[in-house]
Design goal:
single chain; 297 residues; alpha/beta; seven-stranded parallel beta sheet; 14 helices; 13% strand
């Protein structure tokens, strides 16, 4: 799909001046429009695999967002997954890198959309390729409660959850994630410092983990300066966390870069970095056999 001159101009302007999640979503939408056929997912996956390999990644969990192409443009989810899985297999055979898919849904499309995307996840969930379900996009106060039934369905089906909560400072959604027994990974949690001591203690003593994306938080202006990032307090107070990249293309970052930012921000020592790796492996959605392989490496 070829962008019009105006679309390309808008894209480049936004790409160079991205701030706020609305800008990100606009770019995300424009990029999605360039995927014309299911076969294009093969090209995209291949390019992403190459990028990850060059960055030294051995294990990657990545979010797949095919709903625009299925709901709006009539593409087939089974064909999309076929082409993505093809390159996952090739990557493993060629260089032993391991790839897992987390199917992504968007809260702004409402409950019916969320249920449909979860049904995909449930149907294709196999722990070999599709390993989890994710909910994202701009939050509204307490909007996660709307999807409680889906979270409970995930619990009953044994499908791991990672949920976008607290990015815009909404503490109710973060509290919801802390209280729900099956949400194991909380994305961003920037409202951490708004929690009371009891909720912080519950989070600290739970098996849940916070996924932190420093570049994303800073570029989207949810954190004006990394020196004020709530990760500093999470680290001091013993909250389990790991480092992630968010969208590597739009934010122009890598896992190595994010780790370097965290190391500089928190003055991490070797033992701290080892703990971050442990947190990442322990919270991965792969099988115990896969985790043991990662530990060995």
């Amino acid at each position: 799909y070829k962008l019009s001159s105006q679309q390309e101009l808008t894209f480049r302007k936004l790409f160079n001046t991205i701030c706020w999640l609305e800008d990100f979503s606009h770019i995300f939408w424009l990029l999605s429009r360039t995927i014309k056929n299911e076969e294009d997912y093969e090209i995209i996956t291949k390019n992403f695999l190459i990028q990850q390999k060059e960055n030294g990644a051995f294990y990657t969990e990545f979010r797949l967002s095919p709903y625009h192409h299925v709901f709006l443009w009539g593409k087939k989810i089974d064909k999309i997954l076929y082409y993505v899985k093809k390159w996952i297999d090739d990557a493993f055979e060629e260089n032993w890198s391991i790839w897992k898919i987390i199917i992504e849904s968007a809260r702004q499309y409402g409950l019916q959309h969320m249920q449909k995307v979860f049904d995909w996840t449930k149907y294709y969930f196999d722990k070999e390729y599709v390993v989890g379900f994710w909910i994202w996009w701009i939050e509204k106060d307490s909007d996660l409660a709307v999807f409680s039934d889906i979270f409970d369905q995930a619990l009953n089906s044994g499908i791991p959850l990672t949920v976008h909560a607290g990015e815009n400072g909404c503490v109710d959604n973060l509290q919801y994630c802390i209280k729900h027994p099956w949400i194991s990974r909380i994305w961003h949690a920037l409202s951490y410092n708004l929690l009371d001591a009891e909720m912080k203690n519950i989070l600290k003593n739970s098996w849940k983990i916070v996924e932190v994306s420093l570049t994303s938080n800073n570029k989207l202006k949810y954190v004006n300066s990394l020196d004020t990032h709530p990760l500093i307090d999470m680290h001091k107070e013993g909250i389990k966390y790991c480092i992630s990249t968010d969208d590597t293309t739009i934010f122009q970052t890598t896992y190595s870069n994010e780790m370097q930012l965290a190391q500089k921000l928190l003055w991490l020592k070797t033992k701290d970095i080892s703990l971050l790796k442990k947190n990442a492996i322990d919270s991965a959605f792969c099988s115990l056999e896969c985790k043991n392989l990662l530990w060995k490496i």
